[in-house]
Design goal:
Elements: E1 2-5, E2 16-19, E3 29-38, H1 41-48, E4 64-72, E5 84-87, E6 90-91, H2 97-100, E7 111-112, E8 124-128, E9 132-134, H3 141-160, E10 168-172, H4 177-188, E11 192-197, H5 200-208, E12 213-216, H6 222-229, E13 235-240, H7 247-253, E14 254-262, H8 275-280, E15 284-287, H9 293-304, E16 312-317, H10 321-329, E17 336-340
Parallel strand pairs: 10-11, 10-13, 11-12, 13-14, 14-15, 16-17
Antiparallel strand pairs: 1-2, 3-4, 3-8, 3-17, 4-5, 5-9, 6-7
Length: 342
């Protein structure tokens, strides 16, 4: 099959057309004929590589897939060739202590499609049948692909933050895929949402998602603005997936008893924390990764019902994967960039 991948880790230039054998469905697995694959920052991190990441080459990235079932392996029941599906991008063993208590994203062998296995920048991708979810008739397949990883991640993260109706949430970097979903989930939960983003266009698009107040972080101190917005109290929850560049402000923006939740660190992983804020304000720092099988079922159900709407910046052909990653790397998108596989 044809796809886009890399033979070595590095910059955008390592992404290139590749041709590899068609995947074969094993016990409990299915093959999906890919229609759409949406991008995540994980794709960039995997392409760049990190210490200890040893992948068979060429490696095909891509975690978010929508398409039709092309083949089913032994032991697979309830699924048939031709069904329109998406897949939970999380991969778990099903046998460790965390899996047995339903906490699949804490699995000791946890991986992500396109990170630890071949992904969906290709004509076909192999996934465990237990990861599948059917796409309702009439639901656009590009939107189905755009929903998977970011909806799961945002849902789990705000659950771990213990968000309650009437609370205030500050979302740092409103244009990212996870954060466009976090905004919608927070509003659906009955929270008030403050957002910081970097351009007037993104400010307008954030308002369209229901943000109560949005500021341009390039022009003003967003943490001070959030503090003033809450009558000098601070916000209950800060969603900060930026990391190093915004961490100090995020800590300062919190109210007493506030929680900061993170699922990533796009600007760098080593942030400075003033510990005095932690104990004097009794702040909680919460990490979150992906989500459980039940989380995926719950949040995708809300997507199918139209209560959560995937935000798509643009759709590009698979052949433009390098350009798509460039746009994502430079933060020039609002929402998801989706690749169409023809």
């Amino acid at each position: 099959m044809k796809g886009i991948g890399f033979y070595e880790h590095g910059g955008l230039g390592v992404l290139q057309p590749v041709e590899v054998p068609d995947p074969i469905a094993g016990q409990g697995e299915v093959i999906i004929r890919v229609e759409y694959c949406s991008l995540n920052h994980l794709d960039i991190f995997v392409r760049r590589g990190w210490s200890g990441l040893n992948l068979p080459k060429p490696h095909i990235p891509g975690s978010d897939v929508s398409g039709t079932i092309a083949a089913v392996g032994k032991g697979v029941t309830g699924w048939r060739v031709g069904q329109r599906v998406v897949a939970n991008p999380g991969l778990w063993c099903g046998e460790c202590e965390y899996c047995l208590r339903g906490e699949q994203s804490m699995c000791v062998h946890y991986g992500i499609l396109g990170e630890t296995t071949a992904g969906c920048y290709a004509e076909y991708v192999k996934v465990p049948a237990r990861n599948l979810m059917e796409v309702p008739d009439g639901f656009p397949m590009e939107k189905a692909s755009a929903a998977c990883l970011v909806s799961l991640t945002a849902w789990r993260m705000l659950k771990r933050a213990g968000l309650r109706p009437g609370e205030t949430v500050a979302v740092v970097g409103a244009g990212g895929g996870v954060n466009t979903m976090a905004i919608q989930i927070a509003k659906l939960a009955g929270a008030k949402v403050f957002a910081a983003t970097g351009t007037p266009e993104k400010m307008e698009r954030a308002k369209a998602l229901g943000v109560d107040v949005v500021v341009n972080y390039r022009e003003e101190d967003w943490a001070k603005a959030a503090w003033l917005w809450t009558n000098r109290r601070g916000v209950d929850v800060v969603v900060d997936n930026v990391g190093k560049a915004t961490w100090k402000q995020s800590i300062k923006a919190l109210a007493k008893g506030g929680r900061i939740v993170t699922v990533g660190a796009t600007s760098g992983p080593e942030a400075v924390t003033d510990i005095r804020y932690l104990f004097t304000k009794q702040i909680s720092i919460i990490g979150s990764t992906m989500g459980t099988a039940m989380d995926f079922k719950e949040v995708m159900g809300l997507v199918w019902e139209g209560k959560l709407k995937p935000v798509i910046d643009r759709v590009l052909p698979l052949e433009d994967a390098r350009e798509a990653q460039r746009l994502l790397e430079e933060g020039k998108q609002f929402g998801k960039i989706v690749l169409e596989v023809k």
